[in-house]
Amino acid sequence: MADSLTYPKTKSTTVNRYHTRATYDVQAIHSIVNDSSVLHVSFAPDAEDPFPAILPMIGTMGSYEYPSAGLDEPLDCYLHGYVSSRIMRLATSSPQGLPVSIAATKVDGLVLALTPNAHSYNYRSAILHGYARIVESAEEKVWAMELITNSVVPDRWRHSRVPPDSAEMQSTKILKVKVTAASGKTREGGPHDEAKDTTRDDVTGKTWVGVVPVVEKFCEPIAGPDNKAAELPKYIADYVGEANAKAEAYALNAARLP
Amino acid sequence: MADSLTYPKTKSTTVNRYHTRATYDVQAIHSIVNDSSVLHVSFAPDAEDPFPAILPMIGTMGSYEYPSAGLDEPLDCYLHGYVSSRIMRLATSSPQGLPVSIAATKVDGLVLALTPNAHSYNYRSAILHGYARIVESAEEKVWAMELITNSVVPDRWRHSRVPPDSAEMQSTKILKVKVTAASGKTREGGPHDEAKDTTRDDVTGKTWVGVVPVVEKFCEPIAGPDNKAAELPKYIADYVGEANAKAEAYALNAARLP
């Protein structure tokens, strides 16, 4: 692992608890972001408001400058969602962009231990800090729209009506986040109880311990009432099958680790 | 619906887009929070840091004062997770508590339309604004620990080793958030395309449109290596079956709506 890239630790991204579960590895963090169907994006409150803004958005890691870059290389985070006039103003009012924190979390299992205190989740989570700007270049915007569309269903872009027309280009806003620091946390394995409980037959005999694996599962696709395409295309059916198999394999493996 | 409680609209919680999908209904918002296995909690950055804090936490709505209160009644949000010394300090340094924003989001389906621009998710999301304080009273803390444990698996608390001992009471921190404003958003139904695309046979003939329903699914529970309890208890098996059936019914129904 000595050759792999890591994000710099900053005071606010350094994980202070459960050190062994923390990662700053670029590939691990980018993978968690890309495996998350929703990201939560937070930025500072308005002057008169004590509550930070927090928005669910769709996002994925990518590099417009080096489109073939792998998950283990430096990437930006491209975000799509409702971009309010306030975000627009904030993201364009400074040359650096709007400071945002981005969270990605996947639950992989409910970890049931002898005592509530030792209960946990198996999970993967990542937090990114960076500066968000609106993508202005039409070329980069179309590239990012394709990247994000294909992050939801691989190969969907070219199987839909493209390119976007000028009204669609105008109404779509893409945020590009230059990531300055990031950290990830992972928990996997079964329950870990303390000797004070594992040595008590009255407790161990009556308390089931183990993991309920959790997966985000795609069900059988349902054609819309206006669908005219003959049958479910192979690229969708394949993705549903492969994504489900991958998610289940991950969660079951995480549950069976010590 | 005239008799149901609603959260007050504030400038920052008023939903400015897709008005028809917005809700301020107390029961709808509390249900989204309780159906979410993870909440994202955000609060303002430190003075020297432009990035808001954002943390995944486990949480549930409840009322210690009126434990039998329903989801349609005023409730607090109880949170469990890693409470840093910074949160401790911030949540105790003002009588009002630490201003936090809490996001709950569930993805119910991938909505695939004729054009990328009309792609969407079926989802339910809620944002709460409120003031977080550390629960100091031992009685309320144990009550909240039971509430949160049973929110993960109903009835788990009394089937595990309780009550918590003094070391567990000391190491567990519970945040209680007094909610001052909240909003929710829901999207359900199939793809909605525009006439410019639906009238083009070359587009409709080659583009499959519909919904891939998405559910958070519990797999078959896996006993830990140290499990001594004879078989999977009925309360866990029942919950796994019922939660999966409920989640799938919701996602399939959402996919089939117009």
Automatic annotation (TrEMBL), chains A, B:
PANTHER family: 5-NITROIMIDAZOLE ANTIBIOTICS RESISTANCE PROTEIN, NIMA-FAMILY-RELATED PROTEIN-RELATED, FLAVIN-NUCLEOTIDE-BINDING PROTEIN. Signal peptide: none annotated. Residues 185-202 have a biased composition (Basic and acidic residues). This is Flavin-nucleotide-binding protein. Pfam families: Pyridox_ox_2. InterPro entries: Pyridox_Oxase-rel, Split_barrel_FMN-bd. Residues 182-202 are annotated as: Disordered.
